[in-house]
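Pasting as-is:
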Amino acid sequence: LIHFYKRMLGFLSWTIWTFGALPLGLAAFVVYRKVTKPPREPIQKKDWKKDVVYLYQFPLLPKVRTISPFAMKLETWLRMNDIKYENIFTLKFSRKGQIPYIEFNGEEIPDSNIIISTLKKYFNKDPEDAYSKREAGIGHTVITMLENHTTPTGFDYRYGHHMPEFLECLQVAKFYPSGVKMWGMIQPYGTRFRSYLQGTGRHELEEIWEFARKDLVAISEILGDKPFLLGDTPSTVDCALFGHLAQFLYIDIGFPQREVLVKECSNLVALVERMKEKFWP
C-alpha cells in the first residue's frame, strides 16, 4: 500500500510539474524575454529608395532556391509584374513572426498575401484583371486550399517525419549561419504537436497523404489543358502553384505528393516548368 501511495504521489508531482509549474515557467520566461528585449526598429533598411521593394527571405539553397514556398511565390509575382525589388537574406522574422516580409517606402509589411494585395493597389498591377470575377474567385480558392491544406501536409512530411533527410538534401548547414543542428532536433516535435492541435496530425500518415492527393488531383482537373490555371496568361495563383509545388518536385526526399504529381498530375508538373522557364530562365 505504501508503495502504491508513493507511485501515486510521484505521478501527481509529475502531473503538477508538466501541466502547472512547467507551463508557468515557460510563460514567465517568454514574458521576461519580451520585457528585457530592446525595442525593435520600425524598419531595417535605413537607406531605402522610393517604390523599391526590399524582400526579406531565408538564405538561398541549392535545388529549390528557398525552403519557403511563400517567398518563391512572392518573388515570382514581383518578377511577373516587373516590380523593382532587392533581396535581403536573413533569419530574422517580421514583427508578426513571419518570413518572407518586405519593407516598402519605409514600412514593414509581413505575409505574402497581404504584400501582394498591397502592391497590386499601389502599382495598379493586377494580373487577375485579365479574367472574370468568377475565374479570379477560382484562383483565390485554389490558393487558399493550397496554402492552408495541401502545403501543411508537405511541412508535416519534411519537418515532422523526415527532417534529417530534408537538411541533408539541401545542405542547409552549409548555407545557414548557425543553429541548424538544434533546429533539426526541435522542429519535428514542434511540427507534429502543431499538426495534432490543428487536427491533421490525429490521422494516420497515409490518410494525410491522401488529403494532399485529392487536392492536387482537383487542381489538375481545374487546369486541364490550359497553359495556366485560369487561361492563357499567368496570374497570382500560378505564382502560388509554382512556389508550393516546386517544394515537392525539387526537394528529393520521397514526398508522396511528388509521386502524385508525376503519376497523376503531369499537367501541373508542366505548369511548374512553364513558370520556371518564363520567370526564372
